[in-house]
Structures are given as structure tokens and as C-alpha cells.
Amino acid sequence: MALHALSTIDSVRTKVQVADMHFMEARSKLLELAAFLDRVERATGAPDYRIQGLQSALPLLLKDGTERVATILHHWSDPTINPADKAETKAASGVWSGIK
Fold it and tell me: What residue spans define the domains of the chain?
């Protein structure tokens, strides 16, 4: 189902109905993220840009509006205009490696 279609469906539901349907799943994912960040904090070694990408996106979750997903995906995207000569890695990492 398209993202727009989902937002249209949710706009006809009350906030309580949306919370009734999705709160426990969102709560679980938030706790999972907290546990992940705790594991990273206890680990040794150099910082990882993917962790920095996650941490830099957290304030975007608290902003008002209905475009948080698009905002975060844009935040994580490579802003360069010209394509790279070759790939830096074998697979996508989910976050642009140059993120600050």
C-alpha cells in the first residue's frame, strides 16, 4: 500500500484508534533502538557513521508534522549531484557515509 494511502486512512481515524492499533509495536521498536544504542555505547573502537546517522535523525522524530519518514530518508541521503566513479562498499548501508 502506498505511503499516501496509509496517511489518508489514518486521517479518518482518531488519535486513540491509531494508538490502540500501533502503540505496542512502536513502543517495542523504541525499546529495541534503546537497547541497540546501549550495546553500541558499551562496545569499543572508532565511531561508526551509521550510528551517527541514527543519532542525528532522533531530533527529527520530535518535530511536528506528518512527513517524518521522508524527512529522515532525505537526511540520510547522499546529497552529491554527480555519481561516484565506483561504489565504496558492496552493499547499501542505509545512511550516507558522509553524514555529520
Answer: 1-45, 46-81
Q: Where are the alpha helices (DSSP H) in the chain?
A: 3-11, 15-42, 49-61, 68-76
Condensed to tens digits (0 to 9), the pLDDT of residues 43-92 reads 999 999 999 999 999 999 999 999 999 999 999 998 989 888 887 777 78
Is the Cβ–Cβ distance between 94 and 76 less than 8 Å?
yes
DSSP single-letter state for residue 41: H
Roughly how many angstroms between the first and final C-alpha of the chain, as a whole number? 33
DSSP one-letter code for 95: S
Cα separation, 32 vs 80, whole angstroms: 32
Tell me the one-letter amino acid at 25.
E
C-alpha closest to that of 40 among 20, 27, 54, 26: 54
Give the orientation angle of helix 15-42 with respect to helix 49-61, to 10 degrees.
150
